[in-house]
Every structure is written in C-alpha cells, then in structure tokens.
Amino acid sequence: MIDSRTSDDGLSIRRRRQCPECGGRFTTTETASLNVIKRSGVMEPFSREKVISGVRKACQGRPVTEADLAILAQRVEEAVRQTGVSQLDANEIGLAILGPLRDLDEVAYLRFASVYQAFDSLEDFESVISELRAEHAQSKTEPADR
Predict the structure, then answer these.
(1) Which of 54, 124, 125, 134 has its CA 20 to 30 A from that of 11?
(2) Count of alpha carbons within 13 Å of 101, Cβ hemisphere only?
(3) CA-based angle 48:11:51, to the nearest 5?
(4) What is the DSSP letter of 97?
(5) Sign of the torsion formed by the C-alpha atoms of 31, 32, 38 and 41
(6) Closest C-alpha to 1, from 14, 18, 24, 13
(7) At what angle do helices 106-116 and 48-58 cross, to 10 degrees?
C-alpha cells in the first residue's frame, strides 16, 4: 500500500496500492457494509433514501427542504456507523433519527415520534411537549458563549 485516505464523505477509505510483482499501481475503495434488520427479520442494506422518505412524511407542510433531509440522513448514517456494528435493528435507526429531526423541526419531530414511539394518548404528546418547553426555557437562561 502506498497511500490511504478517508473519502470526502468520511464513509469509505481510498487506498493507493502497488503490485509487488509487476509494479503496476491501482486504487481500491473500501466501505463497511451496514445492514438493517427489519421487524419481519428480513435484512437489507442501510439506505439514506429510506430515512429521507420516512422523515419526509413527518415534514409535510413544514419549512424543511430536500437539502435539509439529505443532511439529516447523512447525520443518521454517521451516527449508526459510529456504533461500529455491521447489523442493527430498524428500531435503532428510528432512535437515531429522533435527535437530528428534533434539531431540524420540532413539529416534524412530534409527528415522527408519535408514530414511531406509538403515542396512544394526549398525555404522551403533553409529556414530549413539556420536555421541549423545558429545553427552550433552559436555553434562554444559559449565558451565550463568547
């Protein structure tokens, strides 16, 4: 191996190699596979597009752009890859979506959480809304960084 670099997206490694016999040079790209185990037990490769399509429904009518959704999907993929596991449950993907979605749009977050976490009463909504209000109040009282 002559050189090794992380690609621009940080999800793959580009290696420059040289054949020890003929001296010819070539490049390889290595990526770690990431598979999702669905509730049915079926395994499929992780897909940013599936994250985007799932979150898009929660963002209908909200001021969220396709670029915002692409960034969210990238953040989710980076978070699940950082766990270091090659297989994870679909449930873990949903948990990884909640944080970035909350940062992006709180209404979309409530919509997604209500379906994903199976809210079945007004109290479930009230509980999450109370948490959001408490965070807002806390962020207003914290001094700004200088």
Answers:
(1) 54
(2) 26
(3) 10
(4) H
(5) positive
(6) 18
(7) 110
d(CA 45, CA 35): 4
Give the C-alpha separation, 79 to 82, whole Å.
5
Cα–Cα distance measured from residue 59 to residue 140, given in angstroms and rounded to the nearest whole number: 26
pLDDT tens per residue, range 78-122: 888 888 788 999 989 999 999 999 999 999 999 999 988 889 999
How far apart, in whole angstroms, are the C-alpha atoms of residue 54 and residue 57?
6
**Nearest Cα to Cα of residue 78 among 10, 5, 8:** 10
Structure tokens at 141: 């009282």
Single-letter residue type at 33? S
Global pTM?
A: 0.72
